Amino acid sequence: MKTIHIFTILCLFSTLTMSTTCDGDVFSNVIIANQSDEPIYVYTLETPSDEICTIYSYFQRDKTIHKLGKNETFKDIVDTERMEEGIDRYQVLILKQSTMIRYSKEEIIEKRTFDKHYILTWKDLQSMRFNITYTGKR
């Protein structure tokens, strides 16, 4: 009987804590989905609007690249406070697996051989409902 009461209290507590939201949340989830016919590599970065090309230099030295298989998704976290304070662009670079095989990282950076490059504002993300779907079509 004691076990049932404890279990009931835990369930109630869990339900209450999961159902509450904070108006002051500073993070939003962005879902990136791969609907193309091959695996892709995804690199994301938040930048100020006057540093659009910076993503290429970050890509050159950063190792945080996510691989998504066909029909897989990746959940990224965007800092909404930063988006409102001048770091107002969310950039996504996508490279198909075939591109990564065909070109070296240096060639990709030098020739900017990305399969898709999204440069999105906060309003863009909101209008997309924080979902980005890559189909493989240019």
Q: Secondary-structure map with pairings?
A:
Blueprint: H1 2-19, E1 27-34, E2 40-47, H2 54-61, E3 66-68, E4 73-79, H3 80-84, E5 89-96, H4 97-102, H5 105-111, E6 116-120, H6 122-127, E7 131-134
Parallel strand pairs: 1-7
Antiparallel strand pairs: 1-4, 2-3, 2-5, 5-6
Total strands: the figure is 7
Report strand %.
25-35%
Query: What is the ordering of alpha helices and beta strands?
Result: HEEHEEHEHHEHE
What level of helicity do the residues show?
Answer: 25-40%
Q: Which sequence of strands runs across the widest sheet?
A: 3-2-5-6
How much is the average pLDDT?
77
Structural class: alpha+beta
Radius of gyration: 19 Å
Terminus-to-terminus distance: 62 Å
Shape annotation:
globular
**Which blocks of ≥5 consecutive residues have pLDDT under 50?**
12-23
Sheet with most strands: 4 strands, antiparallel
| Structure annotation, total helices | 6
Report on this structure.
The radius of gyration is 19 Å and the shape is globular. Residues 12-23 have low confidence and may be disordered. It contains 6 helices and 7 strands, in the order H-E-E-H-E-E-H-E-H-H-E-H-E. The strands form 2 sheets. It has a 4-stranded antiparallel β-sheet with strand order 3-2-5-6. A 3-stranded mixed β-sheet has the order 4-1-7. The protein has helices at residues 2-19, 54-61, 80-84, 97-102, 105-111, 122-127, and strands at 27-34, 40-47, 66-68, 73-79, 89-96, 116-120, 131-134. It is of the alpha+beta class and 138 residues long. The chain is 36% helix and 31% strand. The relative contact order is 0.21.
